[in-house]
């Protein structure tokens, strides 16, 4: 077992995580101009499908029919590869814009979607001990703004300060006269008045002209999101809009997106099944986000995108050709600010004796190590604030090396 771990560490060279990994802040990009996108994959993505190990002799035996994919996996460093549906993501890896963190997860193993998602968003150590989110608390600590691309503020973005939301509407854009009437209606309600004022200020930003000029938005701010394409088309349009908002000089510095449907209990390996389609959509969303952030005022070089899910899946196939809730999984960090082209993995092995409870990929890298790296090095949240309020209970979790020099 020890020899195998050392072999994989050698293959991955400096990409392998060591327990003493520390984060160096001096000389790194970040601060006020930094941009962060958090994409939450709800349902528990199977990390061994998204990032398989075709060169690992244990992989095929451990996964059975789930080891078969419709096309050749896309090679990464060492024994790792990407699912063939993640071609755009693989191109980012080759441009050294993608970091893959494998065998990662939360310090939680009870297999409940609700509790695991609560911990993923709150940053706590026990479900429901914190009622606000780590990103909301981090933005409050650093005086920055956040936005959710949905109708309600998700838990991760809730905190001591206000956060904005944006979602498409089937209604036409409001006239100036209607906005003026609403302002008069809201003037005696401080919370509603401030929210409307922020929305109007963003709308009045001259840079919004570039957003509205995008072909996806022709005919009004929401036209591209109203024009059809179903849930897939809307997901891609929201990814583009997130990039457009983050590119505005006075826009938010963090945006939250989400993509559901990752609870793959049945028919997981089907070539046109839900998992393959979701991986393809994820790939397209991330590519659309990158393209949007590479616009007339490029924000991609100063952006980190985190792709996180609440837990992984069991290693072995279940009776309905899918996988059940597990522990260890995979996370992605990508963007122009990321030192990519690497796989970080203290690989635990896939033999039954190496699995958590004989079932799951064992967690060897705390997911909070990745989150802390983004908050400390990219958003420049102080260590004191991180330990006291943003990520309480994670003071002994060392942040990983994430950003470009």
Task: Describe the protein's topology.
Layout: H1 2-12, E1 35-41, H2 47-50, H3 57-63, E2 74-75, E3 81-82, H4 87-94, E4 98-105, H5 113-122, H6 134-142, E5 146-148, E6 164-165, H7 176-186, H8 190-204, H9 208-213, H10 223-226, H11 230-247, E7 254-259, H12 274-293, E8 303-309, E9 329-334, E10 342-344, E11 365-366, H13 367-378, H14 383-390
Parallel strand pairs: 1-7, 1-8, 4-10, 4-11, 5-6, 5-7
Antiparallel strand pairs: 2-3, 4-9, 8-9
Kindly list the characteristics that best describe this protein.
two-stranded antiparallel sheet, 14 helices, disordered N terminus, globular, 405 residues
Structure description:
With 405 residues, the chain is an alpha/beta fold. The chain folds into two domains: 2-168 and 256-284 and 303-390, no CATH class; 171-221, no CATH class. Helix content is 35%, strand content 12%. It has 14 helices and eleven strands. The chain has helices at residues 2-12, 47-50, 57-63, 87-94, 113-122, 134-142, 176-186, 190-204, 208-213, 223-226, 230-247, 274-293, 367-378, 383-390; strands at 35-41, 74-75, 81-82, 98-105, 146-148, 164-165, 254-259, 303-309, 329-334, 342-344, 365-366. The strands form two sheets. Strands 1, 4, 5, 6, 7, 8, 9, 10 and 11 form a nine-stranded mixed sheet that branches. A hairpin with a 5-residue loop joins strand 2 (74-75) and strand 3. Helix 6 (134-142) crosses helix 14 (383-390) and helix 11 packs parallel to helix 12 (274-293). The longest helix has 20 residues, at 274-293. The radius of gyration is 21 Å and the shape is globular. The two termini are 34 Å apart. Mean pLDDT is 86; it is low at 1-28 and 206-227.
């Amino acid at each position: 077992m020890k020899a195998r771990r050392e072999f994989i560490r050698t293959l991955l060279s400096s990409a392998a995580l060591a327990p003493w990994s520390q984060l160096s802040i001096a000389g790194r990009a970040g601060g006020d101009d930094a941009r962060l996108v958090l994409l939450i994959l709800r349902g528990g993505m199977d990390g061994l499908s998204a990032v398989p190990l075709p060169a690992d002799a244990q992989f095929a035996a451990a996964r059975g029919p789930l080891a078969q994919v419709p096309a050749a996996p896309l090679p990464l460093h060492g024994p790792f590869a990407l699912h063939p549906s993640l071609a755009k993501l693989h191109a980012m890896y080759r441009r050294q814009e993608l970091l893959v963190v494998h065998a990662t997860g939360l310090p939680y193993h009870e297999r409940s979607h609700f509790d695991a998602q609560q911990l993923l968003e709150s940053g706590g150590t026990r479900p429901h001990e914190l009622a606000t989110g780590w990103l909301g608390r981090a933005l409050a600590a650093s005086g920055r703004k956040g936005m959710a691309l949905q109708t309600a503020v998700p838990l991760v973005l809730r905190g001591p300060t206000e956060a904005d939301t944006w979602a498409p509407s089937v209604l036409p854009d409001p006239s100036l006269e209607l906005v003026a009437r609403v302002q008069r209606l809201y003037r005696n309600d401080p919370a509603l008045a401030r929210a409307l004022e922020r929305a109007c200020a963003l709308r009045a930003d001259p840079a919004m002209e570039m957003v509205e000029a995008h072909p996806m938005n022709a005919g009004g701010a929401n036209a591209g999101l109203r024009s059809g394409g179903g849930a897939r088309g809307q997901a891609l349009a929201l990814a583009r809009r997130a990039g457009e908002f983050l590119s505005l000089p006075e826009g938010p510095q963090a945006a939250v997106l989400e993509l559901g449907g990752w609870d793959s209990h049945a028919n997981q390996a089907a070539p046109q099944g839900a998992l393959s389609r979701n991986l393809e959509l994820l790939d397209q969303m991330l590519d659309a986000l990158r393209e949007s952030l590479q616009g007339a005022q490029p924000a991609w070089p100063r952006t980190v995108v985190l792709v996180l899910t609440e837990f992984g899946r069991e290693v072995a196939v279940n009776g309905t050709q899918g996988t059940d809730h597990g522990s260890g999984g995979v996370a992605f960090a990508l963007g122009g600010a990321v030192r990519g082209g690497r796989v970080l993995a203290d690989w635990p092995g896939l033999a039954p004796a190496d699995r958590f409870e004989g079932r799951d990929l064992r967690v060897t890298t705390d997911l909070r190590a990745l989150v802390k790296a983004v908050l400390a090095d990219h958003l420049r949240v102080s260590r004191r604030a991180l330990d006291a309020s943003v990520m309480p209970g994670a003071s002994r979790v060392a942040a990983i090396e994430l950003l470009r020099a």
